[in-house]
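Hi team,

Filling in the usual template for the complex we talked about on Friday. All components are listed, including any nucleic acid strands or ligand strings, so the model treats them as one assembly.

SUBMITTER: L.P.
PURPOSE: interface mapping
COMPONENTS: two
RESIDUES: 873
SEQUENCES:
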Amino acid sequence: MAQSNDPILRIKGLSKSFPGVQALTNVDFTLQRGEIHALMGENGAGKSTLIKCLTGVHGRDSGEILYDGQPINCTSPLHAQEIGISPVYQEVNLVPNLSVAENIFLGRFLVKPGRINWKEIGRQAADILKRFALDIDVEKNLGEYPVAIQQMVAIARALELKSRILILDEPTSSLNVQETEQLFTQMRRLKADGHSIIFITHFLDQVYQVCDTITVLRNGGYVGTYAADRLPKAELISKLLGKEIEKLGEVNARRLTDERAAQHAEEDAILVADGVAGDNGIAPFSVSIQRGEVLGCAGLLGSGRTEVANIFFGIDSVNRGKLSVNGKKVEMKSPRQALKEGIALSPEDRKAQGIIGDLSVRENIILALQNRKGWKKTLSVSEQTDIANKFIKMLNIRTPSAEQMISNLSGGNQQKVIIARWLAANPKLLILDEPTRGIDVGAKTEIQKLIIELSQEDMAVMFISSEIEEIARCSTKVMIMHEMNVSNMLYGDDINEDTIMHSIAEGHVDHSE
Amino acid sequence: MTTANSENRVQSAVSRAAASIRRIQWPLIALGVILLFNLIFTPGFFEISIQNGRLVGSLMDMLKRAAPRLIIALGMTLVIGTRGIDVSVGSIAAIAGSLAVLVIRGGDITYLETQGISTVPILLVIAVALFAAALCGLFNGFLVSTIKIQPIIATLILMVAGRGMAMLFTGGYVLNFDHPTYRALGIGDFLGIPVPIIIAAVMFILISLVTRKTPLGLYIQSTGGNATASRYSGTNIRLILITVYVISGICAGVAGIIFTADVQSADAAYIGLWIELEAILAVVIGGTSMNGGRYSLAGTVVGALIIQTLITTLLTRAVPVQYTLIFQAAVVIIVLILQSPRVKEFSFRRQGAAVEVQDE
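RESULT (copied from the run log):
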């Protein structure tokens, strides 16, 4: 029998690779009894892979998992639940058109001889929820309640499964402040009852509100485990991003277009946002992007980087302020209109928003150009092939031919095809949202080089990235985002990893202190 | 440079052609097998004789019967290409057919027997019928693209209501007519070939040209393949959706004209009944995925031919009627299994292995 002061869960040297990607390398993780433990990392750091290895969604290549002192090897999520490890995911994994009580007891209905004991189910469900200070009608369909309540019901269900480890994967992303506070109260109560909680979130402030311990992962590797009260926020950020703020030495920025950018007058601006705010929650901000300029956009995940891009590209609508393109005020209603104005966006989610997997490289490349030309000027197949081959060569896209299905290409090459799609349409402003995420180092460098080259050819580029280093290297001007605000702008010599990092951290420190 | 370019072009043209044939290889093989079976076991199946200046034989008969179904399936292919479906085509055919007959009769449904030869201009008849069919398609397209109702529900509305409207037009009667030119659209022949076959061929060529010589085909496939990515690339998704449903409606209208011209009467309750299911089947057998994206018009032609050949074969083999549906289902299942992602993956792996060996 394990001692009660032993950790409930200990993961040692866990590694996991997927075809072509090393997702986790030698990761350690220790969860004590009755603690709330934050698992942190930027996108692609390996948080969800770790959870999936733990709960049996994925197998593991090597490493050991000790649960209550015993080695375990979960073969399926169901198996994990049975032994007391219950994940609650960001999207509520319950059935909206069943009642709250049914959802809580789904799969293990209480019975009396020959039939289901509905009365008892209803009574117990109400009891369970009362413990969460939730006094709701358990006979009503789950879908009729707000997401926060659904989230609570999901947690209640997980606990009713007699779980000892509760995994909350970004539970607060759909909750408002009060609901979040309610959730935290419950989390603290569970902790007092001796439950252990793994809490995954991108909101740093919340981590400090509720967590005892923080483990940071980066690029599939283990960075460290820290007591929350002994890890200042600025330090946490530098650990997340992988740069020691103090240690940053000389600047290695190559602002080739620096002087030219300075010479450009305001009328050279391709796009000017004047006090623009959007329905997507972005607070009023002002910025201008000139010809030949690379506007870097840095900030943590969820800080509003993508939202700014979406406003410029007509995906999300502006509800305040003035947006002008080429000196004319525009109301950007759709990507179609943005394209006509000469604005292009390579979106963040390559698979869901970028590639059209069924179609060939050629068709993927010419789509935006054809749309810009319209119905009357149809590109013949041989023209299309010439254009596709030109960009395959220019961007060094590795594909057997222009007719290859794009889904058969590697991530980096798919990304290049998407960039080629926009270059073919010859935009004045190219917005690249995380163009280098999840692609190999070679392709990454090529894309960075391309960004600088394009700006030298007088194109305006907006470059969104989580990697401070490439922002510092490629940008002529940097916009720092923090909690849906533009918190700072950096110019000229101020653009280096150190100041960018400090600015990102400052936003947080200013906000919380 | 120029030679390199033209070489590239030839190369890509070849790989494009190879890809489109590969996509419909299994339907082609299935059709071949059924035809081969008939060549061996059904004497006279391929015999075509000339009687009174027209080609006669079970092959011609088969093609003629397949024609209206094929026309509807062509429109359906484009709809399915956008990841939609149109179950209202049978009712649209009924509306178009009934309206055509109504126009021929001068709007009069009070007499049942024909009253001599009608002289209403044929172009007027066709124009009214196809205009109504296009309007039906527009309605479907509006519901799907603008109101954003799921395609199967949106078109279900017209599937139910449309047949009711058609029956209102005909007053619930089976209306006969006598209009030699209109009748010819169903049972006439041109240069010895039955007119419905010619109409189907023209529709195939027309739709192929429209989708290839304009960006429509690219837009349809990108919309079906990934609507978000396509919209972000500037595609006018609404326009594309409306266009495909209108085309599908017009195709159904053409089929409705052929149906009524063939039997020289309009029975709104039966024109094109269940044709939507056969059309969808033809599209799917032809290798177009219900998930949208890549579609194959040629595949749909093969798919429609497979269904009709099978029916004709079973009939000429005097297979008892109660077995024919089972046989049809069996062939459909075989073709679909051969095209399933699992089997494709398997054969792809084997091909991949072969390529690797060649490389070494």
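MY TAKE: The radius of gyration of chain A is 25 Å. Confidence is low (pLDDT under 50) at residues 245-263 of chain A.

Thanks, L.
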